């Protein structure tokens, strides 16, 4: 699982990891018997977006996971050959430090070309946008995908804080983008690529991702 380190936006708010988009898939993967390694672009703390907490508090059931997020491994310490799948949780922070991370791009290229499982939810698909395959095509070109929509971004009034609008970017790269209404659960599976629209889709994305692993 690749999580953001977070980034302060111009409005002063720290765009970080959306906790449920990490915790719910993590729990699903562990319940299915999988070992999970958590990495981030820089290593160290993956900052949790305070808007994903309950009254600025981490839910008690996720206290241990939140502690682990304070000391993630750097992404360049892992190699694709050691893993069966890769999962990208969202949170607005993912828009800043996942798209241009060269090691993440290499991992995702390797996973795609080895026909291994890739999962991403909400803003997690931002990590897919910078990946060009050996044939020169973008990873998402011609793929059926979903992600946080432009409408949802405008709904939370952060469209001007983002480096790009994720839905628009995926469409520009040639993806077949699919969405439902704002905040409706929606998951799209294309081969072993599983993507989800928003936090409401986290559990279903994880279950679909696990199906591809199995």
Structure description:
With 214 residues, the protein is α/β, with parallel strands linked by helices. The chain is 28% helix and 14% strand. The chain has seven helices and ten strands. The protein has helices spanning 19-31, 63-68, 94-97, 102-113, 150-155, 166-172, 202-213; strands spanning 7-8, 14-15, 39-40, 73-74, 85-88, 117-121, 144-145, 176-177, 187-190, 193-196. Strands 5-6-10-9 form a four-stranded mixed sheet, sandwiched between helices. Strands 1-2 form a two-stranded antiparallel ribbon. The model has no long low-confidence stretch (mean pLDDT 97).
Structural topology:
Elements: E1 7-8, E2 14-15, H1 19-31, E3 39-40, H2 63-68, E4 73-74, E5 85-88, H3 94-97, H4 102-113, E6 117-121, E7 144-145, H5 150-155, H6 166-172, E8 176-177, E9 187-190, E10 193-196, H7 202-213
Parallel strand pairs: 3-4, 5-6, 6-10, 7-8
Antiparallel strand pairs: 1-2, 9-10
Helix pairs in contact: 1-7
Structural class: alpha/beta
Rg from Cα:
15 Å
How far is it from the N-terminal to the C-terminal residue, by CA? Answer: 17 Å
Low-confidence stretches: none
Based on CA inertia axes, which overall geometry fits? globular
Strand order across the biggest sheet?
A: 5-6-10-9
Strand content: 5-15%
How many helical elements? 7
**Total beta-strand segments:** 10
Overall average pLDDT:
97
């Amino acid at each position: 699982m690749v999580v953001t380190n977070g980034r302060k936006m111009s409005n002063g708010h720290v765009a970080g990891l959306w906790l449920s988009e990490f915790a719910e898939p993590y729990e699903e993967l562990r319940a299915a018997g999988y070992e999970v390694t958590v990495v981030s672009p820089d290593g160290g703390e993956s900052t949790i977006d305070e808007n994903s907490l309950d009254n600025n508090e981490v839910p008690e059931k996720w206290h241990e996971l939140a502690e682990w997020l304070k000391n993630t491994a750097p992404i360049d310490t892992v190699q694709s050959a050691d893993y069966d799948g890769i999962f990208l949780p969202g949170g607005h922070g993912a828009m800043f430090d996942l798209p241009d991370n060269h090691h993440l791009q290499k991992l995702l290229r390797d996973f795609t070309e080895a026909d291994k499982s890739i999962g991403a939810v909400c803003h997690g698909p931002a990590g897919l946008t910078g990946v060009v395959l050996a044939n020169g095509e973008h990873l998402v070109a011609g793929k059926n995908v979903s992600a946080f929509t432009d409408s949802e971004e405008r709904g939370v009034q952060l469209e001007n804080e983002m480096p790009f609008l994720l839905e628009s970017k995926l469409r520009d790269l040639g993806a077949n983008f699919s969405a439902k209404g704002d905040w409706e659960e929606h998951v799209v599976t294309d081969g072993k690529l599983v993507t989800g629209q928003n936090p409401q889709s986290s559990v279903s994305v994880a279950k679909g991702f696990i199906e591809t692993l199995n």
